[in-house]
Specification:
By secondary structure, the protein is of the alpha/beta class. The protein has a single domain, classed as 3-Layer(aba) Sandwich (Rossmann fold). About 50% of the residues lie in helices and about 15% in strands. The chain is built from nine helices and seven strands. It has a seven-stranded parallel β-sheet, sandwiched between helices. Strand 1, helix 1 and strand 2 form a beta-alpha-beta unit. Helix 1 crosses helix 9 and helix 3 runs parallel beside helix 4. The longest helix has 29 residues. It is globular and about 55 Å long.
Length: about 260
């Protein structure tokens, strides 16, 4: 799909779904600005893509810091003179544990990282996106709709992203800006591999992850990136929609009582 010469911002773009987005949009001819906290990983990916004629710029940024987010948007606008698409992907899933084991401070910190950062990025980018009739894609999660065992804090942030997306889509329709979200299920990312490696039974953990989908496998970061590219470049009559990327994980009945 062609999205040539459009200017894209991707947060959390050095690995996982963010990397998938960076690669997909670069492949479509876009000018991609991506950020993350790890400068070494960012420079490595940027060098690789530039060697293959990709037009990319890495900016070190901690999205939990509002000034960093504003600087990301400002640098993008200053370099390219426009912004066509904002992909709010950066976020974190804390270890699974019951609410008793989460502190209030931990929840506040997660809200800043997973949710407030998206509000800030949208706020700062929208003056530019209104000029180009651009679009925003916010990364939510399937568990924001269906819940997750020992994931109350994470699920709360992701459910809020979906709600925020729908409300912002209503506000920005008059300005010609589309706002959508993507809710991935099990996508095979470095975070998933870490969970496998740290498991007492890695083979079983990987197998359970694959078996959760009707399609019998996890999704790939390439599939996630391609969905975002389609929303930005092709789904031009779509706004306020949560696009589920799950391989059918949420369909059908399953054993639940064993979770108690």
């Amino acid at each position: 799909m062609d999205y040539r010469d459009k200017v894209i911002i991707v947060t959390g773009g050095t690995k996982g779904i963010g990397e998938g987005c960076v690669r997909a949009f670069t492949g479509a001819g876009s000018r991609v600005v991506f950020c993350a906290r790890n400068e070494v990983e960012g420079d490595k990916l940027a060098t690789e893509l530039k060697a293959n004629s990709g037009d990319v710029l890495f900016i070190k940024c901690d999205v939990s810091k509002t000034n960093d987010v504003k600087d990301l948007v400002d640098q993008t606008s200053e370099k390219y003179g426009r912004i066509d698409c904002l992909i709010n992907n950066a976020g974190w899933h804390p270890p699974h544990k019951p609410i008793d084991d989460f502190s209030v401070e931990e929840f506040r910190d997660l809200l800043d990282l997973n949710l407030v950062s998206i509000f800030a990025a949208c706020k700062f980018a929208l003056p530019h996106l209104r000029k180009t009739k651009g679009n925003i894609i916010n990364m939510a999660s399937l568990v924001g709709a269906i819940g997750q065992l020992h994931g109350a804090t994470y699920v709360a942030t992701k459910g809020a992203i979906t709600a925020f997306t729908k409300a912002l889509a209503i506000d920005e329709a008059a300005n010609g800006v589309r706002v959508n979200s993507v809710s991935p299920g099990n996508i095979y990312t470095p975070l998933w591999q870490q969970a496998i490696d740290e498991s007492s039974n890695p083979e079983r953990t990987r197998a359970d992850g694959e078996a959760a989908q009707l399609l019998g496998r996890m999704g790939t970061i390439e599939e996630a990136g391609n969905l975002c590219l389609f929303i930005a470049a092709g789904a031009t009559f779509t706004t306020g929609v949560d696009h589920i990327l799950s391989g059918g994980a949420e369909l059908g009945y399953g054993a639940k009582s064993r979770m108690r």
